[in-house]
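Summary for the steering committee. The consortium agreed at its last meeting that each partner would contribute one worked example illustrating the joint modelling workflow. Our contribution is presented below. We chose a case with several input lines so that the handling of multiple components could be demonstrated. No manual editing was applied between input and output; the record is shown as generated.
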Amino acid sequence: MTRTNPTATIGARRSWLQRHRWLLWRRLSQLGILALFLLGPLAGVWLVKGNLSSSLTLDWLPLTDPHLLAQVLLTGQVPEMTAFIGALIVILFYLLVGGRVFCSWVCPVNLITDLAAWVRRRLNLKANVQLSRSTRYWVLGLTLVLAAGTGTLVWELFNPVSLLHRGLIFGMGLAWTILLGVFLFDLLVAKHGWCGRLCPVGAFYSLLAFKSLLRVSAARREACDDCMDCFEVCPEPQVIRPALKGAGKGLSPVILDINCTNCGRCIDVCDREVFEFGGRFSRATSDNKGRIGAGSGGSRAAEARAARVG
Amino acid sequence: MRSQDTSPGRKSNRRQFLGDLLKTACGVGLFGLGLGLYSQRASSVPAWAIRPPGAIDEQDFLGACIRCGLCVRDCPFDMLFLAEVGQDLPTGTPYFIARDKACEMCEDIPCVVACPTNALSHDLKDINKARMGLAVLADHESCIAFQGLRCEVCYQICPIKDEAITLERQHNERSGKHALFIPVVHSERCTGCGKCEEACILEQAAIKVLPMRLAKGELGRHYRLGWEEKARAGGSLVTPDIEHRYNLPEGMRYELQGRGLIQGEEAPAPLSAPLETLKRGVEP
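What follows is the complete predicted structure of the assembly.
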């Protein structure tokens, strides 16, 4: 990436490792989870059985995909209690850390779409079909309607997330064709097209993020020099603006949008070290008073007064 | 949520919003239609794929099974598989191929215990009550029992021996003096485990486990078997037949052996009549 901003030299002080810190942790998490599932079939060490749809860890911890469980319930079937407990554990976890943490830290398809985004940036591919980011909620609705209407889990015939994960663990078959399709779609048709606009699994998990505690915060937003690196690398760039540029409007520096995947790439790429992981209620270094919520009108004026930048 | 301003731009904003909404709805709807139609094609199960024990009715199964593979993992004999994309059955659902490796019918049924969604019904506690399919002696021509040879492998290997498969003796017409020992499957005891198909000594098994829907015929619901109804009722349910009587003019009778109507003649001894006829025919 070429940049023309005057502060580019600051980046020189940060090592490659610093600039890819969260990315490396994320890859470790994604591949580590995959490795845990593969340890059984490949090495005979059964720490985790099953796949992302439903699994059993150490023979006592059940985990179930709540989106899938919702579809099962809509088909009119009544699962065992373990499925409910498994889904509850997953829901509670993502309520805490943000639903779309699944997307960037767990989901194997993220490896594919990240690769597509990386190639896109490298080759400077600009082709981009405009798809609304709300399309995914329509697709989410569709998965539920299809389950209720047909009485079968229609979405599971196509779901790239489970096709890839199950494929790697139990046998791929021709599932790679659908994943190649997702890769090419992201590469040639729409930027961040699958994860950012269509995937109903991510859409479902985003709904669990409305009050999640773990958040990225533009804590030192006054240091931002508008290099746009974070917007360029972010899979959901629309989530950044209110936090980064909202000081004038008295908005919290915390990225509160439910579609932030907490991937931490903005923290990595920002040479001014504007971003950091924090809690939902963290404040900008310049904000000293007033608890900042997601647009709590009453405190806005106070926040506006407290904010220096803008 | 859209902006709350009341500027002149608001109307066109709303129009654009509704237009976008409609476009998205149409696109997603078409995608859904495609998926729905594809699912209709992709939800059939071929005859060679048998579901694990306890599998509920196929249509319900496709709603309940979340394709997690825990049944596959907990099978101690590694004979269950998850369908892959490109195979003829719904992606990710478990199956086994009896001819390759049949169900060993574990008493604790670990695959059912592992199922988190009741796609394999937890009501199944006794593996002998499982109905994975039904063994059918599909080919009488190649099964060597029909040649009078004592094979009996399917009979011997059956885990519910002498109940699910019995040997029925028939006369050997070819030799004229030996017996055929014909294996006969009884659906009220067969679990469809597939051991017989796995063990069949032929190149292609003559006995095959088929999904119940393919293996079983079904009598029309209105059918009643007279003798069963009679036994249940303790007597005939219809008026008994009246003995047949000819109403002929006086001095006439009717002979069923071929002479037909006979006028004013004594009835001949019944057994001798055909002999007399033959004799008469020989005389010149």
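Strands of chain A lie at 48-51, 54-57, 61-64, 214-217, 276-279. Chain A is about 50% helix and 5% strand.
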